[in-house]
Amino acid sequence: MKNEMIIVLDFGGQYNQLIARRVRECNVYCEVKPYTMSLDEIKALNPKGIIFTGGPNSVYDETSPHYQKEIFELGIPILGICYGSQLMAYTLGGVVETAPVSEYGHTEVTVDTGDVIFEGVSENTVCWMSHTDYIAKVPEGFKITAHTSVCPAAAMSCPEKKLYATQFHPEVMHTKEGMKMLSNFVYKVCGCAGDWKMDSFVETTIQSLREKIGNGKVLCALSGGVDSSVAAVLLSKAVGKQLTCVFVDHGLLRKNEGDEVEAVFGPEGPYELNFIRVNAQQRYYSKLKGVTDPETKRKIIGEEFIRVFEEEAKKIGSVDFLVQGTIYPDVIESGLGKSAVIKSHHNVGGLPDVVDFKEIVEPLRMLFKDEVRKAGLELGMPEYLVFRQPFPGPGLGVRIVGEVTEEKVRIVQDADYIYREELHKAGVDKDLGQYFAALTNMRSVGVMGDFRTYDYAIALRAVMTSDFMTAEAAQIPWEVLAKVTNRIVNEVKGVNRVLYDCTGKPPATIEFE
Ligand code: XMP
Predict the structure, then answer these.
(1) Which of 122, 132, 215, 319 is most open to solvent, judged by the fewest CB atoms within 10 Å of its CB?
(2) What integer best gives the mean pLDDT of the chain?
(3) In whole angstroms, what is the distance from residue 182 CA to residue 185 CA?
(4) For binding ATP, which residues are annotated in this chain's numbering (predicted)?
(5) Which of 321, 330, 392 lies closest to 359 in space, CA to CA?
């Protein structure tokens, strides 16, 4: 069964993914597509509705992204947001101009609650604005449905043609009743039934994986992270022992992590699959000996992963399918990609080239992270696995500044373990995006007992973030930090100083390298 779908047509707005997530939170499947998609391609997808995103441009600038007028004549409901609303107005004969007063941030908007988009919304409601252009005159056939003190057409609609537009952003949480507006659009305007639910996703995916794979052989590189773990469990439910998971312990995992992964996916765990753990710790340490440059370390770790995986895959023989835990943001970012490379991260590139297989299987490629987690819970996976914080592919390799040695790995593992344990005990971990201990390359003088020490400084990091693109340093209660510090210097040999990283991203990054 195919899910009903809403398309988000991306005009370069920074909230494109967020709009899609919000629509999915309404239980309606939604995909982001580039504005260069042709009308025929759009029609072929048979969407129940289309949402135009915002964007940084001005519609009256010839070089800005536009869309042919015919899209408004398909009879498919359209909601234009910010730039999208101006584009709708401009294309249909309205007037868009530079606003006499720009509006940014929280803005009180007066809405016409008789308009279907604002049904159930308060007459005066706080919305998030971010615009320098505005709709000076709405197109013929449209009526103004909201205004602010400086923006005469904060929303407009033409119900006969099912066209709606808001100058503000209903998708961001600062728009207090934005979810209600989006839900009105998808249910009351587009007539969706709401068939996107995780239980049906899990069920239909297992079914279609079975059909696709038949009695073929499947190989999965399991890292223990959320995405590859959920992908492995889905596959194991679908094809059981036809699946082999290879887990490479590169010696740069958090304390006890290798054993935890083995306990879940190994022979003693609840899943029926073939599990191979490769203990490649020493191999990695010797490759990393003397290497201090962060990018070189990353490349060595990535490259070595491929070599180890390749060796194991050769032992297994030719496989039919290779599983990857690609998720939707990876798909969008590579498809519409535009950002600069700060670090050569994310996913183990190159894997497909070195293994003899027929096809890649990516069962999670249409899911956002929180949906992957919901699917994991639906599959009955333990919560501690499903709600794991992100952990970088090169692991502690990028949390040890400078050269990696076995001794330094031990230090950072032990310090990190204490930090995580204490944050959990204090109940502050659940509000954090990411938190860990890193080992600086700095040694300094201290005194323990009556002796002089010259030991390493551990840096503690904790950030609040929702998208990991920007982050703020978290304000961990002082008494918790004091306890962690005390335990680390007492229990972890080789450390005599503990520092807390107060820097946000930007200008720092979340990891240290
Ligand atoms: P940064 O340090 O760039 O990190 O602010 C943003 C997010 O990405 C993770 N990260 C990585 N993930 N391979 C990965 O798979 C990497 O090399 C890598 N470096 C950073 C980081 O943990 C954070 O969640």
Answers:
(1) 215
(2) 93
(3) 5
(4) 223-229
(5) 321
Catalytic (active site) residue 82: yes
**Out of 30, 127, 169, 511, which one is annotated catalytic?**
169
Nearest to 323 by CA among 284, 365, 286, 283: 365
- Angle separating helix axes 369-378 and 198-213, nearest 10 degrees: 80
Q: Ligand 1, residues 345, 461, 503: which to mutate, most atoms within 8 A of Cβ?
A: 345
Would you call 158 a catalytic residue per the annotation? no
Using a 6 Å cutoff on CB, does residue 394 contact ligand 1? Answer: yes
Cβ partners under 8 Å of residue 153, min gap 6 = 89, 134, 135, 136, 138, 144, 146, 147, 167
Task: Give the pLDDT score at 337.
Answer: 41
pLDDT in tens, 342-360: 555 544 444 556 667 888 8
Indicate which atom in ligand 1 lies nearest the CA of residue 505: 5
229 annotated as belonging to a binding site for a ligand? yes
Residue 497 and residue 331: Cα distance in Å, rounded?
Answer: 42
Q: Rounded to the nearest 5°, which phi and psi values hold at 231?
A: -60, -40
- Say if residue 228 carries a ligand binding annotation: yes
Collapsed DSSP state (helix, strand, coil) of residue 46? coil
DSSP string, 312-345: HHHHH---SEEE----HHHHHHHHS-----SSS-
Using left for φ > 0, alpha for ψ between -120 and 50, and beta otherwise, residue 228 falls in alpha
* Distance (Å) from CA 234 to ligand 1 centroid: 25
pLDDT at position 349 is 45
Q: Taking a C-beta distance cutoff of 8 angstroms, is the pair 403, 393 a contact? A: no
> Which atom number of ligand 1 is nearest to the Cα of residue 342?
3
- Ligand 1 binding pocket mutation candidate from 304, 343, 348, 391 (most atoms within 8 A of CB): 343
Q: Which contiguous run of DSSP H or E holds residue 125?
A: strand 124-137
Burial class (CB in 10 A: 0-12, 13-18, 19+), 32: buried
Check if 302 has its Cβ closer than 6 Å to any atom of ligand 1: no
Residue to mutate, 339, 511, 512, 513, ligand 1, most ligand atoms under 8 Å from C-beta: 511
DSSP three-state, residue 139: coil
Q: What is the mean pLDDT of residues 441-462?
A: 96
Name the DSSP class of 64. Answer: S
- The response to whether residue 468 sits with its C-beta less than 6 Å from ligand 1 reads yes
For ligand 1, atom 12, the nearest C-alpha belongs to 392
The torsion of the CA quartet 420, 407, 285, 385, rounded to 10 degrees, works out to -10
Q: How far apart are CA 228 and CA 231, in angstroms?
A: 5
- Catalytic position from the list 4, 171, 257, 312: 171
Quickly state the pLDDT bin for 306 (edges 50, 70, 90).
Answer: confident
Marked catalytic residue, from 30, 82, 127, 245: 82
Spatial CB neighbours of 507, under 8 Å, sequence gap ≥ 6: none
pLDDT value of residue 99: 94
